[in-house]
Amino acid sequence: MIKLAYNIIRLLRPRQWIKNFAIFASVIFAGTLFDTEILNKIIPGFFVYCALSSSIYIINDIFDREKDRLHPAKKY
Predict the structure, then answer these.
(1) Of 22, 23, 13, nearest to 51 (Cα)?
(2) How far apart are CA 73 and CA 76, in angstroms?
(3) In a 3-state reduction of DSSP, which class is residue 74?
(4) Statement: residue 76 has pLDDT above 80
(5) pLDDT-derived band at 69, boundaries 50, 70, 90
(6) Nearest-angstrom CA–CA distance, 24 and 47
(7) Distance between CA 45 and CA 39 in Å, rounded?
(8) Counting Cβ atoms within 10 Å, is residue 56 exposed (0-12), middle (13-18) or buried (19+)?
(9) Over the range 13-41, which residues count as b (16 or more CB within 10 Å of their CB) and which as e?
(10) Which of 59, 52, 41, 44 is nearest to 17 (CA)?
(11) Element (H or E) spanning 62, and its range?
């Protein structure tokens, strides 16, 4: 069960979510980072962006699985 959860988390590639913090750049540069009305919109947007990027990674993995099986590093 733990291995399954680990593999699912790996599939979602959370370490790639770091670059999704770029969504906060606009509010930082506008000086509205601590505006609660804006934060109530941008924080859920960040999580939606993470979910969308993870879904693209999963779709890519599905389409590339045959090619990845032949790759020396990706086959693992």
Answers:
(1) 13
(2) 6
(3) coil
(4) no
(5) confident
(6) 12
(7) 9
(8) exposed
(9) eeeebeebeeeeeebeeeeeeeeeeeeee
(10) 52
(11) helix 36-70
Q: What is the pLDDT of residue 15?
A: 93
The pLDDT value given to residue 46: 96
10/74 Cα distance (integer angstroms): 13
Q: Tokens 């990674």 map to which residue?
A: 57
**pTM score, whole prediction:** 0.78
Query: If you search the block for the tokens 């609660």, which residue do you land on?
Result: 36
- Residues 13, 18, 19, 21: what is their CA dihedral angle, to the nearest 10 degrees? 130
Q: 1-10, 42-51, 56-65 — which one is most confidently predicted on average?
A: 42-51
23/35 Cα distance (integer angstroms):
15
Alpha-carbon gap, residue 42 to 37, rounded angstroms: 9
Read off the tokens for 6: 């680990």
